[in-house]
Amino acid sequence: MQRAKETITSWRKLGKYPEAFLHFFFQWTLLNLYYNALSKKIKEPYRVLEFGRKYENLFNNVKNDAIDLIKTECVGEGKEDAPPNSWVKTASLQLRKALNIDSNSVCANCRREKRRECEKIEIEPYTFGKMEALMRILYQIRCNLFHGDKTEYENGAQAERNKFLVKIGNKTLEIFLHSITENSEEN
After folding, report:
1. Mean pLDDT value of segment 128-141
2. SS3 content of the chain, % helix, strand, coil (to 5)
3. Contact 88, 77 (CB under 8 A)
4. Is the dihedral angle over the CA atoms 69, 70, 72, 74 positive or is it negative?
5. CB of 55 within 8 A of CB of 179?
6. Are 154 and 37 in contact (CB under 8 A)?
7. What is the Cα 137 distance to its own chain's centre?
8. Looking only at Cα atoms, what is the longest distance across the chain?
9. Total-model pTM
10. What's the mean pLDDT in 61-75?
């Protein structure tokens, strides 16, 4: 409760929502519109994954950003040292493997408490495509931002991490939105 109050106070003093975060919200809202039209799945995570499967061909356009993203610790499900959920952990590990990135060396650099908790999380019995895995990770960033779990912005390592995640997210979302609107084959 105290952290929530501190975050609210900090953001109120800032007086505005950071432009990069607003841009992420805006772009995700547009992508949300598209994947909702694309899929009839009831739950949003499944619509996100379906977009990833359908647009696997876009992965090469964002490959370098995906590499930058997965060379760091997994996106957690919540604030600070929160470990990833099982789906994000599975997506991250599979994407690293597909891109020949050694997960052991990445995980060795994770924050100690996060790594300890992450080791307890089971892997899902699911095989992600590269774009699908990336979309699942980006969806977690979206969830963390939308639900207030990644609001540190001004000071500290977590603030820098949040800015990094949003920056990668914005770059990839821009590419996705451009690609889907410029593709004349779609109705």
Report:
1. 97
2. 70, 0, 30
3. yes
4. positive
5. yes
6. no
7. 4
8. 52
9. 0.90
10. 96
